[in-house]
């Protein structure tokens, strides 16, 4: 015959095991839901990257990729950075809604990090959020999105070829 104390211990162990099991199940469900939301939210970007990369390989001879950018202004452009068969670093700018695909030699202009440095030097941002390649007024540009020292959202378009600021939008 079990004593009252033994019965209480067994009940306490069962209760503890149930609690641990419930915590583990809840944690696993949370991880699953978080991963699902992330995967669903990232699907359009992944699909655009896959399509733009396929077009860059087909029409521009891209052999390897090193970056992907999305630019949204009047039109949306997807840019795939990488190397062609000759080992040259290129940027392939693909319009979302069709049109001419542009192939730019990286050596002919600024890199993303150089455009970012230009903005850091000129505007002293609190934080740079994004750098993206696109087409503005039929010319290739780097769009640098950042927060200024007051925490306001700002955009700066930097010419790919000259490195000069083409347009600034401040304090949004």
UniProtKB/TrEMBL annotation:
The chain crosses the membrane at residues 20-41. Residues 51-95 form the Cell wall elongation regulator TseB-like domain. Pfam families: TseB (PF17881). The lineage of its organism: Bacteria, Bacillati, Bacillota, Bacilli, Lactobacillales. It comes from Limosilactobacillus fermentum (Lactobacillus fermentum). Keywords: Membrane, Transmembrane, Transmembrane helix. This is DUF5590 domain-containing protein.
């Amino acid at each position: 015959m079990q004593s009252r104390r033994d019965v209480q211990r067994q009940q306490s162990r069962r209760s503890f095991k149930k609690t641990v099991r419930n915590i583990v199940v809840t944690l696993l469900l949370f991880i699953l839901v978080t991963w699902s939301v992330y995967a669903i939210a990232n699907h359009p970007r992944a699909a655009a990257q896959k399509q733009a990369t396929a077009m860059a390989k087909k029409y521009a001879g891209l052999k390897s990729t090193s970056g992907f950018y999305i630019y949204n202004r009047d039109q949306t452009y997807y840019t795939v950075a990488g190397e062609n068969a000759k080992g040259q670093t290129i940027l392939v700018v693909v319009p979302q809604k069709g049109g001419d695909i542009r192939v730019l030699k990286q050596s002919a202009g600024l890199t993303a990090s150089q455009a970012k440095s230009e903005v850091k030097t000129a505007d002293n941002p609190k934080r740079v959020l994004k750098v993206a390649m696109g087409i503005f007024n039929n010319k290739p540009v780097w769009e640098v999105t950042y927060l200024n020292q007051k925490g306001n959202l700002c955009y700066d378009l930097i010419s790919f070829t000259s490195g000069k600021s083409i347009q600034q939008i401040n304090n949004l």
